[in-house]
Every structure is written in structure tokens, then in C-alpha cells.
Specification:
The complex is a heterodimer.
Chain A: H1 14-40, H2 47-57, H3 60-88, H4 97-124
Chain B: E1 4-11, E2 21-28, H1 36-47, E3 66-69, E4 72-75, E5 88-91, E6 98-100, E7 103-104, H2 107-115, H3 135-139, H4 158-162, H5 168-179, H6 187-194, H7 208-212, H8 219-234
Parallel strand pairs in B: 1-5
Antiparallel strand pairs in B: 1-2, 3-4, 3-5, 6-7
Helix pairs in contact in B: 2-5, 5-8
Classes of the chains: A mainly alpha, B alpha+beta.
Bound molecules: iron/sulfur cluster (SF4).
Iron/sulfur cluster is lined by residues 147-153, 169-170, 173, 212-213, 215, 217, 219 of chain B.
Chain lengths: 126, 235
């Protein structure tokens, strides 16, 4: 007997989407960590080398990418708190489990917008 | 002319087909409030007698007709056709081997159920009459004992799809049903099984099981309760 991949894939419920985003942001944070360590390691190679690499990561392109970093950190953090409350609080309750996901999305969006606008303004004022 | 609704049904006959395919049927709406199961019966009785699917009580009690309908797991017998967007795509429960058409092999699902010892375990000598329980203690089992083992929750779970060893929401909810029972004395042996990376800790709170359960139970919450007990035991 064989297992078949269904043609119509499983519906993306809010919690399912929240989990997929959590995984994606988790992987991105892991990759960022390597980038971060790679940048920092120039410290050991003297002032000139470090200033040079800092010049690159402070270019407008990287400043725009930094908004992505903000989004990744904020979403992963807030959703992480929700996941903890699903297990150890009461956010798994039928009446609130969906609302909690929407609140996570809304709160993350609000913080990303509030933080992202000044960051973008700074990036483009260069 | 009676109104018709298209059913797009997953077909697979292991004796003839190499690959599964989807077949369209026009189901006639003959009375108000027709369920998806009524449509499937109409197909089998009037259009194609070879269509295989499970059903028994036709009122959401036996748990045999769990199906993936329009991408969500549910019981066909208590799902109104009028609540669904046509064409109605009917597939077997995901991640289980297909026996024929919509009939899946539940061996693995049931084995996992039996692994958590879903029966009363006692070591103390039995009292003269039955083992008593206060109404409050009994109330703790509400939302747990009603499980009909339809497999809708477990087969909706991405962790269950990805990890063939994962006990799944249904087995874990059923372990909670006995662990939280004041009359039961087998919690420790059950914890040995579920306190494992393929047990409660495989639950990533994706919440698909809550969305899927046709009895409106809450496997994620039950797994959370078990995690809480395990954490408390540790400290
Ligand atoms: S918990 Fe609900 S969905 Fe899961 S097997 Fe039991 S009745 Fe079915």
C-alpha cells in the first residue's frame, strides 16, 4: 500500500501559516547569525578591515535589508511567546486560539511598520 | 431540474491503476440539508458501484468516514454540502496508505492509540462496589472521553506527516483521557511513552488538529496539559 500526495493541499489555517512563518524566520535568524559573526570577525583583523566591512553593511542596500531583519526578529519573538502560551498558558482554548494568531500577526505588523518607517527614512536620507 | 453539485473524487484501485486520478460526479441535490455522505452514497448506489469509502452510523458517532474534503479533514456524514464551495474535492485522509479510493489503512494510527495504554490501569485493590469519582474529577474528562478515533486530527498534523514515529494528537489526547482520570494509576507508565521526542514534544502547536476535530475536542490543549504535568514533575 502506498501513501499519495494529495492534489489539493491541506488548507492553510491561521495557525498553520503562523507555524510556517515561524520556521522560515527561524532559518533566516540562523543564517543571520553566521553573517553577523562573519562581520564581527573583522574586528580581529584591525581597525581598517573592520571599518571597511562596516562601510559595506551601512550602505543603503543593507539598511533596507535591516528592515527585513527587524521583521524576522519581531515576528519570531512574538510568535514564540504565543507558542509558549499555547503550551503553558491557555492560548490553545477553542475560543481564543485563532484570535491569538491574529493578534500575533497584527502586533508584529504594527511593530515592523513603526520601526521600519524611520529605518527606511534613514536609509534613503543617505 | 434539480440542482447539481460536482464531486471531484480521488480514485485509486491498486489492482488496476498505477497512479491515482480524480473523477467528477454530478450529485443531485434532492432534499435540503444533504450531507457529503449522502452525495457519496448517491454516487455509489446510482452512478458507480466500485467507489470505495467507509461509513457506518451516518451521524458522527462511529468515526469511520473521516475524509479530506476541500483540503480539510472532516466527517462526511455531518458536513453539509451547502456549506462547501463546489467543486467538492474529496480525498482520503492525508499521509496514510491508500487501500482503495477513499479507504485508508488505519493500522499505524490504531497501533499508536494502543501504545498509550488507553484503558484503566489500577494497582490498588478494588473497592466493594465500583471505583468512585467526584463530579469535579469527572468533569476533567470532558472534552477527552468523547474522541471517536476518526483520525481527522492526526492526519491533519504536519508533524504527523513528517515523523512516522510521532504518536499524533489523537493518541496523545487519549493518553490524557486516562492520565487525568482520578481512578487511574498508570500515569507513570504512560509518561514513559509520551515523554519522548516522538511524543508530546513533537507537537509544534500548528493547531490544525483543533480545526479538524469534528467532535470539537482540543488535542493541542490536551497535549499542553501533559507538557505542563511533565514540566512540573521535573522541578
Ligand atoms: S480527537 Fe477529534 S479528530 Fe482526533 S480522533 Fe478524536 S474525534 Fe477524531
Amino acid at each position: 500500500m502506498k501513501v499519495f500526495q494529495p492534489q489539493k493541499r491541506y488548507r492553510l489555517h491561521p495557525g498553520y501559516i503562523a507555524w510556517i512563518l515561524h520556521r522560515v524566520t527561524g532559518v533566516l535568524l540562523g543564517l543571520y547569525l553566521f553573517l553577523h559573526i562573519w562581520v564581527i570577525h573583522y574586528l580581529a583583523q584591525g581597525e581598517q578591515a573592520f571599518n571597511k566591512v562596516m562601510g559595506i553593511v551601512q550602505s543603503p542596500l543593507f539598511l533596507v535589508l535591516e528592515v527585513g531583519l527587524l521583521g524576522t526578529v519581531v515576528y519570531h519573538g512574538i510568535n514564540g511567546l504565543r507558542v509558549i502560551l499555547v503550551d503553558y498558558g491557555n492560548m490553545a482554548k477553542r475560543e481564543i486560539f485563532r484570535k491569538a494568531v491574529y493578534v500575533t500577526f497584527a502586533l508584529s505588523a504594527a511593530i515592523i511598520i513603526a520601526g521600519g518607517i524611520p529605518m527606511l527614512m534613514h536609509a534613503f536620507s543617505h | 431540474m434539480a440542482e447539481k453539485v460536482t464531486f471531484k473524487v480521488f480514485r485509486f484501485n491498486p489492482e488496476k491503476d498505477k497512479k491515482p486520478y480524480y473523477q467528477d460526479f454530478e450529485v443531485e441535490i434532492r432534499k435540503p440539508g444533504m450531507m457529503v455522505l449522502d452525495g457519496l452514497n448517491q454516487i455509489r448506489w446510482e452512478m458507480d458501484g466500485t467507489l470505495a469509502f467507509r461509513r457506518s452510523c451516518r451521524e458522527g458517532v462511529c468515526g469511520s468516514d473521516g475524509l479530506n474534503i476541500n483540503g480539510v479533514n472532516m466527517l462526511s456524514c455531518i458536513t453539509h454540502i451547502s456549506d462547501l464551495k463546489p467543486p467538492i474535492v474529496i480525498q482520503p485522509l492525508p499521509s496514510l496508505p491508500v487501500v482503495k479510493d477513499l479507504v485508508v489503512d488505519l493500522t499505524d494510527f490504531m497501533n499508536k492509540f494502543f501504545l498509550v495504554k488507553p484503558y484503566l490501569i489500577t494497582y490498588s485493590p478494588p473497592p466493594d462496589k465500583e471505583r468512585l469519582q467526584t463530579p469535579e474529577e469527572r468533569k476533567k474528562l470532558d472534552g477527552l472521553y468523547e474522541c471517536i478515533l476518526c483520525a481527522c486530527c492526526s492526519t491533519s498534523c504536519p508533524s504527523y506527516w513528517a515523523d512516522p514515529e510521532y504518536l499524533g494528537p489523537s493518541a496523545l489526547l487519549n493518553s490524557a483521557r486516562f492520565i487525568l482520570d482520578s481512578r487511574d494509576e498508570g500515569a507513570d507508565e504512560r509518561f514513559e511513552i509520551i515523554n519522548d521526542r516522538h511524543g508530546v514534544w513533537r507537537c509544534h502547536t500548528i493547531l490544525n488538529c483543533i480545526e479538524a476535530c469534528p467532535k470539537l475536542l482540543n488535542p493541542t490543549e490536551a497535549i499542553g496539559e501533559l507538557k505542563k504535568i511533565l514540566i512540573k514533575k521535573k522541578f
